[in-house]
Design a protein that fits this description.
Layout lengths: L3 H9 L6 E3 H11 L13 E5 L2 E3 L2 E2 L4 E2 L6 E3 L4 E4 L20 H14 L6
Parallel strand pairs: 2-6
Antiparallel strand pairs: 1-7, 2-3, 4-5, 6-7
Helix pairs in contact: 1-2
């Protein structure tokens, strides 16, 4: 099963560079994965941009940083910008059997599966 950030990445590859609301991203994920029964947590896949670098956001209450891939950049106007594949910040996969998983291979498997179902995947 794909992680939340992997589903968001797969659903937004045709929207690279666009500024989207969380609702628009959620709808894109649900359209890409019509049988999805889990929530879409857009903020969990969003990093921030500081001094031209994509960096994890800090949860000031818990004091820790994002643990998901940075597929989006959170903008100050409540929207998100979709990052191109080469700028996505990859986090090491750990726990729940993902240790050592190759995110690119996982994404390829997901896009192949979508293409087999008749979805146009670029």
């Amino acid at each position: 099963m794909l992680s939340n950030s992997q589903r968001i990445e797969a659903a937004t590859r045709t929207l690279v560079g666009k500024e989207l609301s969380a609702k628009a991203i959620e709808l894109a994920v649900k359209a890409t994965f019509p049988g999805l029964t889990v929530g879409v947590y857009v903020g969990d896949a969003a990093y921030t941009e500081k001094n031209g670098k994509i960096v994890p956001r800090t949860n000031t209450q818990a004091g820790d940083t994002d643990k998901n891939d940075g597929v989006l950049v959170a903008l100050s106007n409540g929207k998100y910008r979709v990052l191109p594949t080469e700028k996505i910040v990859r986090k090491e996969r750990t726990g729940r059997g993902r240790r050592g998983a190759d995110p690119a291979a996982t994404l390829k498997a997901a896009t192949d599966e979508l293409a087999a179902l008749g979805f146009k995947v670029e």
